Each structure stands twice: as C-alpha cells, then as structure tokens.
Amino acid sequence: MNTTTRRTFLKQSTAVAASAAAFHVASNLRAQSANEKFTLGIVGPGGMGTNLLKTFAGFGDVNIASVSDVDANRLAAAVKNVETLKGKTPKAEKDFRRILEDKAVDAVVIATPDHWHAPATILACDAGKHVYVEKPGSHNIREGRLMIEAARRNKRVVQVGTQSRSTAHVRAAMEKLAGGAVGDVLAVRVWNSQLRGNIGKKQPCDPPPHLDFDAWVGPAPMVPYRPNLLPSIWRWWFAFGAGDMGNDGVHDLDIGRWGLCAGDRHPNRICALGGKYFFDDDQQFPDTQTVVFEYDLDGGKKKQLIYEQRIWAPYVQEGHENGDGYYGTKGYMILGKGKGWDLFAARNKLVEKGEGKVDLPAHTRNFLDCIKTGAHPNADVEVHHYSACLCHLGNIATRLGRTLQFDPQKERFLGDDDANKLVHREYRPGHWAVPKGV
After folding, report:
1. How many Å apart are CA 342 and CA 109, to the nearest integer?
2. Could you give all domains of the chain from N- to C-terminal order, each with its CATH number?
C-alpha cells in the first residue's frame, strides 16, 4: 500500500460516494428523506452516554424511542433527559435486546463499558440496526475484526466515537500533512499526559441494589463486585477496559496514525516499556508507558509511531495535555485535538496555525447522514480498527515486556504463543452475548 498523498487523502474523504448507491440500495434504510426521522435506542446512557443522548436529541430529525441500562438510577435519569429534551417518554429497558427486537428502531447508540462494545455492536448489526459505538470500538484485536465482518455482511453503518475524525481543524491539519506541508512524515509522537486519580485498594462486597451486576459483567468472566470497579473505574481492569491507552490515548493515536500518512494498516513491530511507576492501588494497566510501533511500507521504507503515557502529570506538554507531533523531512506540526495546531518549516519557523475544538455534533451528524446516503462514516469501524489495535498491541507488548513481531494480514504475532493468547479474550461459558467466531 502506497503512502498517502493529498490526492489520496481527498479520494479517501470522498470515495465512499462512489459506492454509496449500491450500499444504499442494499441497506433497506428506514429514514431516507428530509421529512423522515431517525428512531434511535440509547444503550448505556451513563457519562459519555448522557452526552451522546443530549447531542442526538438536539437534532430535529431524531426520535429517541428507548433507553437501556443495567443501573436503575442511570436508566431513570436517561428517561427524564429524553422527556425534557424531546417531550416524549421513551421505553426503559434493562435488557438492550428488547431494543434490538423493536423493528421501529433504525439505529442504536452504544456507550457501555469497553467489554460490551463489540458484542453489542455485532448483535445490533445482526438485528439490522446501524450503530454508533463509543471508543475504543473493541476490547481486543479479534473482536475488532468480528465487528467489521458484522457491519459488512449486514450492510450497516457503524461509526466509532473518535470525534476528531469529523472535527474541522483536525481534518484540515490532516489534509496539509497528506499534501506534503512538512515533507514526508517519517515519525509521529503521541502523548497522553494528565493527572488521574488513585482508585485505592478495595475488597469485594455486595453490589448496590440499583445495579444488576451480573448483566453488567455480561459475556466477560464473572468477578466479584468491588467499590473501585464502577463507575468508569472499570477502564483500569484487564477484563473490562483497555487502560488509558484505550481511553484517552486512542483519540490521539487515531489522529497520529492518520497523520503518519502510511494508509490503513497494522504495524509490523511493537516495542514497549512501562508499568505502575506512580499509583499504588488496584488498577492493572500501566500509569507510565512508552510504545514504539514500526511500519514496513512498500519499497523497503519504514515509518515510526511513538506513544508516551504519563497519567500522573500535573502539567501539559508543548501546550497540549494530549497531543500529536508530526515530524517530516521539511518541517513539523504540533496538534492538540481540543485546541488547534502549529505548522513549522525548517529551523522552527512558524508558518501557519489552525484553531478549533472537538466537534461531537458534527460526528454524530455524520453518522446520521451516512445512514441516509449509504456512505461509510468518517470513523468507520474498519478505519477505527487499525487505531484501536494500536492500543491492544501496545498494552500486550507492555504487559509482556518484549518486542513483538506482528503479521498485519493474519492479525497474529509471529512465534509468540503468549502474545497470541491476548489477541482474543476469555468469555463466560454459554453467555448469550459471546460473539460467534471468537
């Protein structure tokens, strides 16, 4: 696959239109005209789920028919939010399968914990629903591939919540990089430096009465409930999250991979060091991490992507808490998705700046528009897969503490049984949500 040029970038941004007609005809879409509404179900309307609920509710052509959560308090709050924003009372379902059975629902928004992202997306696609799913799209490498297959065999639109893909100033920066503004981008540095909290050390206990913990665990292996597992803290546990690399890091890794201009592909080698240097608590993922990804390109050329994580840092780097540095043969660019970018020529001469903020409404609108047109969305499930896998690959390499060789086509490690065991995960035997083919 050739490296990305400006022409390729523009083609990638618009080429979906060429195949949209065929995709559209086969999609059996419900909302096809400006006068029709999209009927949505919201699954997991908690933290980010509430933001998404409110954002989708802000569109006049969206009807939120149902909400689902295994936490009774969050479910009640979601119902109230829809009543306030849309003037209608949605159905309240603890089991999201009831939403999937509703033929009136066009699409579902999935904002559950990471371990539910792939199982819920696959089930939704197989039920004929389009899907907006939060990042990281998958909990592991194998699930990501199964999500792509589910979207394609059902001809469903699946958008992942990496909003920078629809943010104007980020897209402008990517076009400049693809057009050669800094020359040939040979290396990208991604950093995730912020101050997280200590989650403490807690003993198992009974879950609160408003939470159906068995349903929350779902297809993952059953573990005892403990107070530092919910809410949101599940991100730091191997069975349920992907660490901060898969939490905030995936946004900047996605932008970094995009600007590397190496096309949609996996790296060939991964080298990592890291661990818990700062926090003395129960979290299982590293608080400090440095991962180097090396890509083999056509003609013997190579490119490098570097990820740095320090989630104990009470300061920002180069003006951005989370950012990307693109280093080319003629200059470099420093970008922060929530603030803007600076483009430098040789000898650090500032030649251009761009400003902006992450645009969630644009990203959700892109999802809805693609349901109408049949185009692939900006953060299509397959495009996102290559970014989510950076998180999984980096975490595996850090966990094992050695350089790994990866086969991009087979999505398997070369000569490393321990690493290949982590390409997929263990599931609760017999659970109804275990994806087929895992």
Report:
1. 34
2. 6-165 (3.40.50.720), 167-199+228-361+388-421 (3.30.360.10)
Amino acid at 109: V
DSSP element (H, E) containing 172: helix 168-178
What DSSP character marks residue 130? E
Can you tell me the distance from the alpha carbon of 175 to that of 14, in angstroms, rounded to the nearest whole number?
13
Residue 34's pLDDT band (cuts 50, 70, 90): low
Do residues 70 and 98 make contact, with C-beta atoms less than 8 angstroms apart? Answer: no
Report CA torsion sign: 191, 192, 195, 200: negative
CA 412 – CA 419 distance, rounded (Å): 9
SS3 call for 83: helix
Ramachandran angles phi, psi of 97, nearest 5°? -65, -25
Q: Are 356 and 338 in contact (CB under 8 A)?
A: no
pTM for the full predicted model: 0.93
Single-letter code of the amino acid located at 138: S
Place of tokens 């009543």: 83
pLDDT in tens, 54-97: 999 999 999 999 999 999 999 999 999 999 999 999 999 999 99
Q: Which residue has the tokens 């371990």?
A: 115
d(CA 296, CA 314): 36
The single-letter code of the amino acid at 44 is G
Work out the pLDDT band at 300, boundaries 50, 70, 90: very high
Structure tokens at 191: 């950093």
Beta carbons of 135 and 52 less than 8 angstroms apart = no
Structure tokens at 414: 């070369």
